[in-house]
From TrEMBL:
One annotated GO molecular function: transmembrane transporter activity
Biased composition (Basic and acidic residues): 27-39
InterPro entries in alphabetical order: MFS, MFS_dom, MFS_trans_sf, Proton-linked_MCT
Family note: Belongs to the major facilitator superfamily. Monocarboxylate porter (TC 2.A.1.13) family.
Main localization (coarse): membrane
Region span, Disordered: 1-43
The keyword Membrane is annotated on this UniProt entry: yes
Topology of the protein relative to the lipid bilayer: Multi-pass membrane protein
Source species, domain of life: Eukaryota
Listed name of the protein: MFS monocarboxylate transporter-like protein
The organism's taxonomic lineage, starting at the top: Eukaryota, Fungi, Dikarya, Ascomycota, Pezizomycotina
Transmembrane segments: 76-97, 117-139, 146-164, 170-196, 203-223, 235-262, 282-303, 315-334, 346-366, 372-398, 410-430, 445-464
A cellular-component GO term for this protein: membrane
Length: 475
């Protein structure tokens, strides 16, 4: 396929995913008055486009029946605020799991292996992604209110039940299953609502929402550190639960204000595209994300444990090392986004994967607290791109933009398996020396090698994309 043909096809796809670009932004106000004719006239799609209206999560879920995004105003920015609060609870709690990994290993569940304990956090992260993919069609069918209520209830209920847990299976059900299901129900609606209300400022709005990841992780880790020795585990978790409840209650009016139109069913997108399994670019992309996710989250889970067992750090210092990693990831998301704007998403993704893999191997030689603090901050900064850039990079390799949402969901579903098994495998590689000291060489090699393999796959993806799409090196 020639470059002009590919570009023409991508332009056709873009027209199907942004049906509001030339319409009046008054549609949202008209809808509140019940003027359905304005909403219908804002969509100019032929029958083929209407049938194939599927795109990346924040776009595909906007639906062809919706008025043009206002790109500002009180209701629009309330969606950003609400999404920010939701991300504090779902991803912030997930990336802060290293705190719980350390506490469970030394105090609450000392009879369980690190690998078994890792399953709790990875199941939570896996359900977040898988249920998030499946919740897209439910959003399109108008069930976003139900998902917001049920999702937030499951998260707060799971945290409160965690405060009562004393055995492994209880913690697994409360933190792994209950909170994972709740987070999955909130993952897509919180992004989709923001995507519906913004077009030109969408990147800025979503960036603010995703900053809730780092903010939530920092808040919950500091709370855990300050309260665990004073109030004990049950009341520490309950205090965290009250913060999560406050975030949930504040997010309801913010996300639901002015959005009654979204309760109406819209064209839902397909969950499977058979043609994708024959697309070499799709397969290469999935291989890249799979390898990266195998090694990406391992340091986040084991930073506190390594600091305490290997370096002799206090529990408080070890938790602040994890905070350093989350703080680094906040700036890493911004920096990688800026870099991707100039050199391309795949190029930036590949450079960050290579740097992260090398850094993970450098972890082997760390023997002092100062060097490990530096490692933690740099790890957060460099690895942030491994989860933020793939969605943007996927748009560069999908020849038909109208199918982009479906294909991305398929790829994430496969890659989520790597999120599920990566840390437990690393935990199984932990060995105890004859003197009783834990040897972290296995997890360190596992994380570094997986990321280096992922970066090699990205080189292949870049080369094949460049040849197939007949484009320059900035991809």
């Amino acid at each position: 396929m020639s470059a002009s043909a590919v570009q023409e096809k991508r332009q056709l796809g873009d027209s199907s995913i942004q049906p509001h670009s030339n319409a009046s932004s008054e549609g949202w106000h008209d809808e509140e008055k019940g003027q359905d004719d304005t909403r219908q006239n804002s969509v100019a799609l032929d029958s083929h486009d209407a049938h194939d209206l599927e795109t990346i999560e924040t776009r595909s879920l906007a639906g062809s029946q919706l008025p043009p995004p206002p790109d500002g105003g009180l209701h629009a920015w309330l969606k950003v605020f609400g999404g920010f609060l939701v991300y504090i609870n779902i991803w912030g709690f997930t990336l802060a799991y290293g705190t719980f990994q350390s506490y469970y290993t030394f105090t609450l569940l000392p009879d369980q292996s690190p690998s078994s304990i890792s399953w709790i956090g990875t199941v939570q992260g896996w359900l977040l992604i898988v249920v998030g993919v499946l919740s897209g069609p439910l959003f399109d069918l108008g069930y976003f209110r139900s998902m917001l209520y049920i999702g937030n209830f499951l998260i707060v209920f799971g945290i409160m039940m965690l405060s009562l847990c004393k055995t492994y299976w209880q913690v697994f059900l409360a933190q792994g299953i209950c909170m994972g299901l709740g987070a999955g129900l909130l993952y897509i609606p919180s992004l989709a609502l923001v995507g519906i209300w913004f077009e030109k400022k969408r990147a800025v709005a979503l960036g603010i929402v995703m900053s809730g990841i780092a903010v939530g992780g920092v808040i919950y880790i500091i709370m855990f550190d300050k309260l665990i020795h004073r109030a004990g585990f049950p009341w520490t978790i309950r205090a965290i639960g009250f913060v999560a409840l406050a975030c949930a209650l504040l997010s309801f009016p913010a996300l639901l204000s002015g959005s009654s139109i979204l309760a109406r069913p819209r064209k839902r997108r397909a969950l499977f595209d058979a043609s994708a399994v024959k697309d070499k670019l799709f397969l290469l992309f999935t291989a890249c994300t799979f390898c990266n996710f195998l090694g990406y989250i391992v340091p986040y889970f084991y930073i506190p444990t390594f600091a305490q067992e290997k370096l002799g750090s206090s529990s408080s210092v070890s938790l602040y090392m994890l905070i350093g990693a989350l703080a680094g990831s906040f700036f890493g998301r911004i920096g990688s986004g800026v870099m991707a704007h100039y050199v391309g998403s795949i190029v930036t993704w590949g450079l960050c994967a290579l740097s992260s893999g090398i850094l993970a191997l450098c972890w082997i030689s760390i023997e002092t607290e100062a060097s490990f603090i530096a490692f933690s901050v740099f790890w957060g900064f460099l690895s942030a791109a491994l989860v933020t850039l793939p969605s943007a990079a996927f748009a560069n390799i999908c020849p038909d933009m109208s199918r982009l949402g479906t294909r991305l969901g398929m790829s994430w579903s496969v890659s989520s398996i790597a999120t599920l098994i990566g840390s437990p495998i690393a935990g199984a590689l932990l060995k105890t020396k004859a003197n009783g000291e834990t040897n972290f060489l296995g997890p360190q090699l596992w994380s570094g090698i997986c990321l280096l393999v992922g970066s090699a796959c990205l080189v292949v993806l870049w080369a094949v994309t460049k040849k197939t799409m007949n484009t320059g090196w900035r991809i």
